[in-house]
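[job 0412] stage=complex_fold ligand=iron/sulfur cluster status=START
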Amino acid sequence: MTLSRQQLLHELGITPLWTLRAAPAEVDAASLAVAPAPAPAPAPEPASDQLAVTNADAPIQGALPPSALASKDSPLLAVDALDWPELAAQVATCQACPLATQRRQAVFGVGDQQADWLFVGEGPGAEEDARGEPFVGQAGKLLDNMLAALALDRQQRVYIANAVKCRPPNNRTPEAAEMAACRPYLRRQIALLQPKVIVLLGKAAVHSVLGVDKSLASLRGQRFEYAGIPVVVTYHPAYLLRNLPDKAKAWEDLLFARRQLSS
Ligand code: URA
Ligand code: SF4
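[job 0412] stage=complex_fold status=DONE, emitting structure tokens
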């Protein structure tokens, strides 16, 4: 059954938000289509994993030190020179961290290589490990619904990737060292995709991309930057499935992200 947009919004628990709190332009379903923003000038990649923060009121300190893999000896240094197929091939055979030993397959990502939106999750779960695609389980269904409410889908104008490409055993949170090992791949994906906005889903993605280990509540609603690309933080869909009232907050975050995209 295909849900109408109204049913979809109701399903997401966001209809009251639309009628009570959203600006009129956001209530109009037709306005969900985002006008293409002018192509940004290609931004230089960050020299390290340092976080660039544009919110002057809330400078964030404590970016992670450059990963050990950024040493001269690391074969992963070459990652920054790979094209998309080479990158996918390298990830498929990667042994750079212990997660390689228990995966069925690495999960590179899914979507449009011309994406405006990049969503970054934590790491593959059991279903993702089996199917080789991110966010195909229950959390993925919610993510798909959220995309649909923005008139987006995972094949068009959207790319979905994870902080680590291989499944952590028992779906545990990836360790900092594992995320550091995998970060060059995500960094290269971002450099090649050049999305217009990056949405970080949950704490692990925030930790990996922004290098900060803070509560999501303290980071929501701010515009960060990574290599000149706006970055917005929101809750992970798996968290939202356990905390349904926060879906409305996630919706606010997505609307905020959409505003960063065109500015
Ligand atoms: N959770 C994630 O963070 N990523 C996935 O791909 C699936 C579930
Ligand atoms: Fe390599 Fe990333 Fe998989 Fe670790 S999680 S083995 S760094 S692809």
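Residues 65-260 form a domain with the Uracil-DNA Glycosylase, subunit E fold (CATH 3.40.470.10).
[job 0412] exit 0
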